[in-house]
Amino acid sequence: MQVKQQLLSLKPYIPGKTTEEVKREYQLDKIVKLASNENPYGCSPNVLEAISTKIPSFAIYPDGGTTELREKVATHLGVNGDQLIFSSGLDELIQMLIRAMLSPDTNTVMAKETFPQYRHHAIIENAELREVPLKDGRHDLEEMARQIDDKTNIVWICNPNNPTGTYVNQSELEEFLSKVPSHVLVVLDEAYFEYATIEDYPKTIPLLNKYENLLIMRTFSKAFGLAGFRIGYGIGAPTLIKQLEVARLPFNTSALAQTAAITALEDIEFVEKTIAANAKELEKYYQFFDKHQISYYPSQGNFVFINIPGLSSDEIFQSLLEKGWIVRAFPNGVRITVGKEDENEELMKILAEIVTVKL
Ligand SMILES: *Cc1c(COP(=O)(O)O)cnc(C)c1O
Questions:
Q1: Which residue has the least CA distance to atom 2 on ligand 1?
Q2: What is the dihedral of CA 310, 313, 319, 320, to 10 degrees?
Q3: How high is the mean pLDDT in each 10-residue block of the chain (359 residues)?
Q4: Is 115 in the pocket of ligand 1 (CB under 6 A)?
Q5: Which residues carry this modification: N6-(pyridoxal phosphate)lysine (predicted)?
Q6: CA-based nearest residue to 319, from 302, 332, 334, 304
Q7: Pairing of strands 185-189, 333-337
Q8: Quick one: how far is CA 227 from the chain centroid?
Q9: How far apart are CA 120 and CA 139, in angstroms?
Q10: Which of 37, 87, 91 to mutate to test the pocket of ligand 1 (most atoms within 8 A of CB)?
């Protein structure tokens, strides 16, 4: 038996230690996980009500055409239903796009420090990777544009970028799009779209009228708090969507996920509360970081990327882990999901101790 050679260079996704493992290992009573950018406030309470009253027959396949949710999302965004493709989370849409568009004779351009699934699936398809290092923590769009050639099929812009939380603004994005040849698909991963509150964060839906080679990705996993259901979607030109539909599994989103998403989309108040609380907590973190000489990037997401001078990201990660706090370490920094007020306050105290010990 032989899997594709390139699979041997990859690792399966490891979700990190479980809460129970950390509890046992360090003999702790309480563990707080701020590692996966989940919504600390859960999801709209209407979701529980909807999935327990509108119970579908479990013996029947879900609606493969996602009819009702498609209508709701189309109205919500002001687009047509045929501009949408639904997936089992954006992870699946990324896989679908790559399966449909990348092969060994093509290349794909992305930031070096960005969402790892673009890279992972491109390697499985044996496409050439062109990874462009971030510049001051931000996408280096000039260099990314330079990397594009006639073999480039997809360019990825994660906006705001995971893990740094930095963003590409409206004019930067438009200038970039004007330079990209029309045979290249530009994927805008807007997983944290709802959280981005800054004024010049791009309004991308109107750009679809001008650029047929644009695909916007949004998800119910983050601000809507439905990560456990696995549902997200892409927005693009009808011709592109029709072609991608061929690569979509017939029943890729479950009946319960569709019901949950429809309900969550209607509860605007829940999302607004989530966004406001996140923005307020982020401000508190910034003030704290400034006071304690912790470096960070201002974030448009529900997470913040930090560094403590004199400590490696693994050392920061380890110091927090021993006290029961699970965050995410990257080679050049640590990503912390913004939690609830009490969690953030407690974490700040621990970070202050770590900084003091170091000084
Ligand atoms: C979380 C995340 C996704 C994937 O989300 P799904 O749960 O699969 O919808 C995609 N892109 C980015 C940047 C993310 O942070």
A1: 191
A2: 130
A3: 92 80 90 96 97 90 98 98 98 98 98 98 98 97 98 98 98 98 98 98 98 98 98 98 98 97 98 98 98 97 97 96 95 97 98 86
A4: yes
A5: 222
A6: 334
A7: unpaired
A8: 11
A9: 19
A10: 91
